[in-house]
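Record pair follows.
FIRST:
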Amino acid sequence: MNILQLMLVAAGLMSVMALIWMAFSGPSPAKESARRLSAVRFRHSENTKDRVEAQMRKAVAARKPKIHKIAGSGSRIDALALRLHRSGKPWTITQYFYASLGLAAFVAAIIYLKSGAPFLALAIGLAVGAGVPHMAVNHLINRRNNAFTVKFADAIDLLVRGLRSGLPVTETLGVVAHEVPGPVGEEFKLVTDRIKVGKTMEDALQETADRLAMPEFNFFCITLAIQRETGGNLAETLANLGDVLRKRAQMKLKIRAMSSESKASAYIVGSLPFVVFGLIWWVSPNYIGQFFTDQRLIVAGLGGLVWMGIGGFIMAKMVSFEI
């Protein structure tokens, strides 16, 4: 057994041991104790902030249906269908699998014709076939979420104007569905359609919130739930929410502008070794082909990939900001 096989067997055993430990370790006693103390504090505290937070938790729990399951948690197929729906494209799971298999076969054929190594071609083909469609769907989801965020504050302003003119909430949702273009109008159209077939407004909004998984829409649903439980001027509450969402969007744009140089540097530094390696191998495969046959070079290449992966992960965390 050579060095590469030993390394693969060791990595497999370590992965199995980590999975077994995660499966049988159970919940953390410290986290469970902190959760119980937090529940007692919310239940018996006289602090106004704690009481408001407890009321919000109660309102959020009350608006959920009795049999509540987050969309995509049933199986991986359901999660994939949910991601394809979030992308805004009329793609099916069958089309996604066919595209992945076609891309994998195309890349594997090119690598095999160029290198003559079947296992290497199969590994690279599977990696490209599984990774590129996944990244493409992620890109479409992020682009649709950004378009939703840009128009969502305008939709809330339209809701506020409708409520102040005397329209009920369900009618203003229909107005938003017809007047606001893009993903916002599409999602509100789905909400109004669910209400028309007999679902309550809370259930319809909850289903959309679970599918979108966006903080902005969750804020909107929580605002409606708290207003339903406590009462008050809904138009004024939604106006304040719209102002908060606009400031949140401005902060995101400011962070994106300040971190754009660092992100560009990280992309260039992270992709340059792979681009240079691929170009040299394509022009002169004999010059760099020893990395696929010599055991010492294989170990050195794997070590370099590990260190580059660690560096890419650190750079990604340095330029990633949560608001």
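SECOND:
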Amino acid sequence: MRKAFCGCLGLGLMVWMIWAVAVAQEPSNAQEPSKPTKPPKVEPVTHELAIRANVEQFVKAYNAHDAKAVAALFLPEAQIIDDDDNTLQGREEIEQLFAGVFEDEPKTKIEVTIESIRFIGTALALETGWTQTWSDPEGPPDRGRYNVLHVLREGKWLMGVVRDVAAEPTHQDHLQTLSWMVGDWIDESREGTVKTSCRWADNKNFLLQEITVRQAGRDVMKVSQRIGWDPLTKRFKAWMFDSEGGYGESSWTTTDTGWFIKATSVHADGSTGSATNHIELTGLDSYVFRSADRIVGNDVLPSVEVHVVRQPPVPK
């Protein structure tokens, strides 16, 4: 219930469309039947601007942790339905929901991106889009899709039904887990220096790493690595190419402390290699890389542990 919007939409569209039409036409005072009035003419541009303004108000109220202001943007009898069909109804319950969210997650923030707004008759509009919600500003966001049915009542647009839409995470969503790798990193020892630069590919469906190994003041090897999400194995996967003509790949599994990596390689001379690696974060700007079970050809190599830190920016 707290995903995405703390709501989004998608039930049997026809079912809640019929319900919403009834809501839009229902008199505001049940004891005094409303007088017949001529339906207002829908001016798409003006009404769309009004709905977009409401969305901005929602984001502003949410980020201010003002549950009462959030609830005021809903019809008194509005519904919020999550992607498991759990439903709560009424402005009071909606206010309680958001008040609970703000109490449990005092740093939560939200961004809303509208994909489309389509008008249905004179008093209904269907909004679709997606949200990014942060429980902690320094952590990765939760992303979700939503639909909202807006109802025009007494000249004002209000949210009538908000529903989460179940959606498979995109490759970008999965890779947010590894977004901390973006930047420049360095490991220095008596044996030499290893510098790593990581950046997003243009479409953010991959992370690109460039690794330079220096010994005795000169570059002895360069390695390019592309890291992505494998939809077949449901794991991260990386492909590596070195400056001597070798190549390799690795499969990543998330653990309680970091990532467990099974790597294989083919060297320029035709020999093969394998290793079991582990990455453990020790802070926002440091991690430990451990490599065990290292085999190259018929040789067994000793285990390695490397402490890597983020490289400070070059002074201007």
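COMMENT: Residues 44-63 form the longest helix (20 residues).
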